[in-house]
Each structure stands twice: as C-alpha cells, then as structure tokens.
Write a structure and sequence with these properties.
about 240 residues, globular, 9 helices, single chain, mainly alpha
Length: about 240
C-alpha cells in the first residue's frame, strides 16, 4: 500500500512537470491570484502554526483550561510564542544576517539544515517546559511534542528531498483535529472541515507560487499528520 501511495505521488508530480514544461515552460497565474497566495503563505506560515494550534486546543478544551484566565492564560500563549515562534524567527534572521543561509525563505535543502536543528531544539525545550507543568492539559503537551516530531521528520527527509514546511504545519493542525475528533465527546465536525479546506487552500497557494511540487506538498501533509498521531498516542 505504501508503495502504491508513493507511485501515485510520483505520477501526480510527473503530470505537474509535464504541464509546466508545455507552452512557455512554466505555469503562469493571474497576478491577483498570486498576490492572494502570497498573503495566505504569510498568514499560515509554519512559524505561526504552534500559536494557531494552541488557540484551537484552548477553544475546544475550554473546560480543561477553566482554571486558566487572565495572566495564567496569557502565560500559556506567551510561552508558546517565545519558545516556538520568537526564538525560531530570530534565529533564522540571524542566520541570514551572518550569511549562513541565502534567504529566510530557505529555498534549498542546504539552507534548511541549521534552521531545522535550531527549531528542533526550541520545540523540544517547549515540550519539556509543558511536560513538567502538571497544570498544563496533556492535549497541549502532546501537540507541542507532535510539532517537535514533525520537524525531526522534516529534518531527516531533508537529507533526500525538500518538503513543504507550510504543508507540514497545516498537516500538524489537521492531525491535531483528527486526534480531537476521535473522541466522541467533542463535536468539532465543522472545525475539522474548515481545517481541511484551509489545508487545500494553503497547499494550492504553494503550488501557484511555484515554491513546491505536488510530491513535496503531499509529503508535508502526511508527515505533519503522522507526527501528531504519534505524539497523541504517546502522551494522551
């Protein structure tokens, strides 16, 4: 079955290449469509996914965070922002300034090596912080672990091929929704459908911008979902 899956990805990827190579040699899209794709790529940048995931967890598990209000709830968001977003973002900017990477957009596999290592370090630290706080609901700890595992998988796969980090992040959100949806206590059908729709929109935007192939996008989604499933199986 796994072989058939990868054969399907190769088939779709080859079809995309064949279409792109025809006529002008490259697919062209309306400037407005490309502009919208750029905006979506910024809004759903993988850097911000941990914050979105945290909000989704607090929204769907409001009873688990009943004791979190005011400064205590702010501290949860601040911890995620500082450890998983701010530190990662500043590191990438410093790497660019010091010329360790060519672009903050990290087009090449080589550019992604050091940022991946830094991100793994920060994400694992965030996991340890939440893991040792008994008041933090396990679902949030599991999500942070899943985010760490996703980056680990991306780092390993980067040795062979580049995958879409946008798809990886959105796949993580989708994996989180799958894990929550599996509990019959939570009725999040509409929210799940919205996340699925957003995954398709973000993945399509990356293809429109020519940043990735279908294979890179599909693998990103698959790895992101898989990482969350593993994390929830381990923690929750």
């Amino acid at each position: 079955m796994l072989n058939n899956f990868f054969e399907f990805i190769d088939f779709m990827n080859n079809n995309q290449s064949a279409i792109s190579d025809s006529n002008s040699g490259q697919l062209t899209f309306n400037p407005v469509l490309r502009g919208i794709s750029h905006v979506l790529s910024v809004l759903f940048h993988p850097l911000f996914i941990p914050l979105y995931g945290t909000w989704l967890i607090i929204y769907t598990h409001s009873f688990s965070f009943a004791g979190f209000y005011g400064k205590k709830l702010f501290a949860v968001y601040a911890s995620v922002f500082a450890n998983m977003i701010l530190l990662t973002g500043v590191t990438v900017l410093l790497l660019k300034q010091l010329k360790f990477i060519q672009s903050i957009r990290m087009h090449t596999q080589k550019d992604r090596i050091i940022p991946y290592i830094a991100t793994m370090t920060f994400y694992f630290w965030a996991f340890l912080v939440f893991r040792h706080q008994t008041t933090i609901p396990l679902v949030l700890t599991a999500f942070v672990l899943g985010s760490f595992l996703a980056v680990v998988i991306a780092f390993i796969s980067n040795l062979a091929l580049k995958i879409s980090m946008h798809a990886l992040g959105m796949g993580g959100l989708l994996g989180l929704m799958f894990c929550i949806f599996s509990d019959p206590y939570y009725n999040i059908t509409l929210l799940l459908l919205i996340i699925i729709l957003l995954c398709g929109i973000v993945g399509t935007s990356r293809l429109i911008l020519g940043e990735h192939t279908l294979r890179e996008v599909y693998l990103g989604f698959m790895f992101g979902i898989l990482a969350q499933l593993i994390a929830f199986w381990v923690i929750v």
